[in-house]
Amino acid sequence: MSFSSDIKQELNKSNSLTNKENVKFELIGYLITANTNVIKGKNIKFSTESDYNINRFSKLLSNLEINHDIDVNGKTFNIVTKAFDIDKLEFLEIRDEKVFLKSEIEDIGNDGKAEEKKRAFIRGSFLGAGSINNPENSYHLEIVLSNENNLEILQNILRYFDVHTKELITKNRYSIYIKEGEEISKLLALIGANKAVMQFEDIRIQKEMRGKVNRIVNCETANLNKTINAAIEQIAAIKKLQKEGKFNKLDDHLKEIATLRIENPDMSLVELGKQLKEPVGKSGVNYRLKKIMEIANGE
Question: 255-265: b or e for each residue (b if 16 or more CB lie within 10 Å)?
Answer without folding.
Answer: bbbbebbeeee
